[in-house]
Design a protein that fits this description.
Blueprint lengths: L3 E2 L13 H7 L5 H14 L5 E2 L1 H7 L4 H13 L3 E5 L5 E9 L9 E6 L25 H8 L2 H14 L5 H13 L4 H13 L5 H13 L5 H22 L8 H13 L4 H15 L4 H13 L5 H31 L12 H12 L1
Antiparallel strand pairs: 1-2, 3-4, 4-5
Helix pairs in contact: 2-4, 3-4, 6-8, 8-9, 10-12, 12-13
């Protein structure tokens, strides 16, 4: 397989690992996938370093498919982008980096890994409808807003929750929730509290949650609490079923749960059953595997545990019948194998006489 040469404008002898990768992606990823991503970062910081699937496989004692699987995983996480040649071989890799701290707007900046030879990670619940366009508030607009006591309180509490002074971008976002989305200051403050309690301090993430609440018709703190409790209940159930402990779900994982409950329309019992079957099948938490189970149930219009159990029994019965049908001709042949030979008759006295004569 051809080399893929990695280039970067500035090379140095150290490898910088983004905090965002450690905080949001590393803990949930397969350990071997993490190794490959770190190796890519290492290669990026080595001048004229060449990268190939085959050599990387040899280096880590993996198969080439293992390396390709790791690269596709990180592409799905939107931490890199793969390019392919006409033969469908990987010809280029682009690392996608965050433009700043989690509190800043998260923009993907592509750093090319140029060829020599040859599900934006979801930041929160997905919104279902178009939200009001986010305006850019002028200095006069912000001054007018700050004259309102409830806005002053909202901004003050936001600084306390975030533990730092608000940036102009932060203020624009908060005013958008209040003015553009029509949130009361109490609802905006609860949104901050809810997200930070869940380990998400990024205003970019919070804005996605705000858009989801807007699309869901949530206008009061009481409605938000009810929705949040139901949402968190499913999250906790999924984590328990998959055996996830000691960490929060990353955005990509919460997006799967949102897909199962909203797009697929499954209840908690069906979702946790799929997660339990995942652990029984592959003995490790894997949202993609659970997603395939639920997608299959969706295609078959299976909506209850009873229906899933019946489908399992029907499948096993059909498979058993198929095996029996295939085996019966062979068994019949085996049973008749002796009789299929031509039958012979022997004169025992004559044979005995011949043997006695030959012995003399």
């Amino acid at each position: 397989m051809e080399d893929i040469t990695l280039y970067k404008d500035k090379g140095n002898s150290t490898t910088a690992i983004p905090n965002r990768f450690i905080d949001e992606y590393m803990t949930a990823a397969n350990g071997e996938f993490v190794k490959i991503y770190l190796y890519l970062l290492r290669c990026m910081n080595s001048p004229d370093c060449s990268f190939s699937i085959s050599r990387t496989a040899d280096k880590f004692n993996h198969t080439e498919k293992d390396i390709q699987r790791a690269l596709r995983y990180w592409e799905k996480m939107r931490l890199l982008r793969l390019e392919y040649d006409e033969g469908k071989s990987i010809s280029g890799i682009y690392l996608l980096e965050s433009s700043g701290s989690p509190e800043e707007e998260e923009k993907d900046d592509a750093v090319p890994l140029k060829k020599a030879e040859g599900s934006l990670p979801p930041g929160g619940p997905a919104r279902q409808e178009a939200a009001p366009e986010k305006p850019v508030y002028t200095a006069d607009d912000m001054k007018a807003f700050r004259e309102k006591e409830e806005v002053q309180e909202m901004l003050f509490v936001a600084e306390r929750y975030l533990g730092r002074p608000l940036t102009p971008t932060d203020t624009q976002s908060l005013l958008y929730w209040y003015d553009g989305l029509g949130f009361s200051s109490d609802l905006a403050v609860y949104l901050l509290e809810y997200c930070i309690a869940g380990g998400h301090r990024s205003l970019h993430y919070m804005e996605k949650v705000a858009l989801n609440w807007k699309d869901s018709g949530i206008t009061t703190v009481a409605q938000a609490k009810r929705a949040s409790n139901a949402y968190s209940k499913v999250h906790r159930a999924v984590m328990k079923s998959l055996g996830i402990q000691g960490r929060s779900l990353i955005p990509a994982e919460t997006a799967y749960i949102d897909k199962w409950s909203k797009e697929f329309g499954f209840g908690q019992d069906m979702i946790t059953e799929a997660c339990s079957r995942t652990i029984l099948a592959i003995h490790q938490p894997n949202f993609e595997y659970a997603d395939r189970i639920l997608a299959n149930w969706k295609r078959q219009d299976i909506k209850t545990l009873a229906a899933a159990t019946k489908a399992d029994k029907d499948f096993q019965a059909a498979r058993g019948a198929g095996k029996a049908g295939k085996a019966s001709p062979a068994k019949a042949a085996a049973a008749n194998r002796f009789n299929s030979f031509p039958q012979r008759t022997y004169n025992i006295d004559k044979l005995e006489a011949e043997l006695l004569n030959s012995a003399r």
